[in-house]
Amino acid sequence: MEQENSTVTEFTLLGLTESREIQLFVFVLIFSFYMIVLPGNLLIIITIRSDPALTAPLYFFLGNLAFLDASYSFIVAPKMLVDFLYEKKTITYQGCITQLFFLHFLGAGEMFLLVVMAFDRYIAICQPLHYANIMNRQVCYALLLALWIGGFTHSIVQVALIVRLPFCGPNQLDNFFCDVPQVIKLACTDTFVVELLMVSNSGLLTLLCFLGLLTSYAVILFRVRGSSSEGKSKALSTCTTHVIIVFLMFGPAIFIYTRPFRTFPADKVVALFHTVIFPLLNPVIYTLRNQEVKSSMKKLVNRQVLCGVE
């Protein structure tokens, strides 16, 4: 990535907190969390790919959700954990731009995937007779390709706006990773127009997707109100799971990107959950409420244990 408009070669990260005790506590917490939850996400992917019974679009998208979330969790957390061990925390200009790119690339991809999953559930519940024809394999792959392209387009716009800014002096980022709000503040120029474009690109898009998703699930529940008790219960369980994930994903993003880029006391805590904690929890929450995946997962684990014993 070229650095034509910048004399800054690296940024200093101020980190999550200056307290060594709190840093140690967060380090142990996040490291333990990763050792427990990250293998769970990998198990979800392996289970869905290895079980022929889990070939429905729902499981195809769930496997991709687990992959996106696991990938997303590697953007910030590993460097954050390493930085906890050092007094001075730095990141190169190129490293900062790269981190920012993948953060928005995978984050937007996951956001679009949740929209696709909502569409899938709408067709499955509201038009069950046409579901197999509408959500065939070609359509699923086309939707997956579209969300990857959408995530790339969203992210490359962010990066294109950032690299055009001059960075000629201050280089302290008041955070534990590189993101648009903090990086823009260090530019040696008036950034009002850029901030407006960023809010429109990230904030408005996030808010519209969030409201659209909530509306879609409300429509689904309205459509199944006259169904049998079993059908209504299954639809309610599915929608509840999706809505939980939507709030976990979109709540922090709306807080961060739909307002002017000003510092608030809760910013770092929200960013921690948004970039480290919630991504790994999303597929796990979904899986815990899905009996088919849990059953297949138990069978897979039992087979591996038996093979190990033999």
Automatic annotation (TrEMBL):
Protein name as catalogued: Olfactory receptor
Localization per record: Cell membrane; Membrane
Amino-acid biosynthesis in keyword set: no
Domain G-protein coupled receptors family 1 profile: 40-286
InterPro entries: GPCR_Rhodpsn, GPCR_Rhodpsn_7TM, Olfact_rcpt, Olfactory_Receptors
A Pfam family the protein falls into: 7tm_4
Broad class of the protein's primary localization: membrane
Family statement: Belongs to the G-protein coupled receptor 1 family.
Bilayer topology term: Multi-pass membrane protein
Transmembrane intervals: 22-46, 58-77, 97-119, 139-163, 204-224, 236-257, 269-288
Keyword Calcium belongs to the record: no
Species name: Monodelphis domestica
GO CC, any one term: plasma membrane
Keywords tagged on the record: Cell membrane, G-protein coupled receptor, Membrane, Olfaction, Receptor, Sensory transduction, Transducer, Transmembrane, Transmembrane helix
PROSITE patterns given in the database record: G_PROTEIN_RECEP_F1_1, G_PROTEIN_RECEP_F1_2
A molecular-function term among this protein's GO annotations: olfactory receptor activity
